[in-house]
Amino acid sequence: MRYLVSLIFILSAVLFFGVNISPEELTYAGLIPLLIPVFLGINFILLFVLILSKRKLLVLPLVAILFGWKFIGITFQWNASDKASEGMEVLSYNAHMFSYEKYKAGDDKIKVNIYDWIREQDADIIGIQEFYQDNTTPSRNAIKLLGGDNKYSYATQSVEERKGKRFFGLAIFTKYPILNEGKLFDNNKTNGAMFVDLKVKDDTIRVYNVHLESMSIPAEQLANIDGIKENYKKTWRRLNKGVVNRASQVNVLAQHVKNSPYPSIVMGDFNDVPYSYTYFSLRSFMDNAFESAGKGFGFTFNKVLFFLRIDNIFYDQRLAPLEFNTLREVDYSDHYPIRAKFRIAPLLPSKEEP
Fold it and tell me: Membrane-spanning regions, if any (predicted)?
């Protein structure tokens, strides 16, 4: 028993500190932390058993749980929301190119008008990943459908042009004046990162919209568990490739945010779980809206791997979150939209200031 408990303690410690190791430096390091929830559960069971048996070894799972306590708050929260207060509402949504289809009884496909739903939210800032613009088709002209009545200003980043008349990428729509805009990176295929500087009352806030490297698993392989089992070797390699690419991208993103002259919000589809180098690279100097103001597990993936929280809103510590929600009733995409509300005036002092 002693050797088993000691081994689990050592493995737990390695896992809990492994989120700080870049997958670029150590192959498959980014996949190891996926076992963190499992080892947390094992340590809780061991602690319970050792308490009942009155063994001094209980100190090892107890210490392991203390080491890994932060992962509990990352996984589950039960914060009170301040819905009464006014604030700046931010919506982030991987919209699946606005082309998601539902099925009626009898397997008949029906198109979902996702544009109407987004407009009805009336959010102050909207970040859309997998944004698709078609200038040739009125029903697919997303810029006009979402911001054509001058309600919103907008900025876009194209990561894939299609004959100059269509493009795929990222977009930010906002009720606030846009003072500046720019992009951080794109891979000329599906992913990228952009930002806008907004005039919000007497302050300027920088908002990032990001879509990091995909998990690289074809959607059809996520349709059922059997598909994942049949392709597990290829899936494992693709997962690792995605982890390494995201590590490179988040390093660029984190450095850019640190150099921002303004308080920042970083939202989007991170394609990575909270037990990851990607997540902790931003969490090391920013707060996460789910952790501060969310409830439940906050799962954001609308497929068979429903237990994934891969969409996030990080924010500067000078902003104060009032509310955070994962809108799981909105199944217009393979992601659920997430929404946060922030108190914006006056900004809180920086924690680095005396």
Answer: 31-51, 58-78
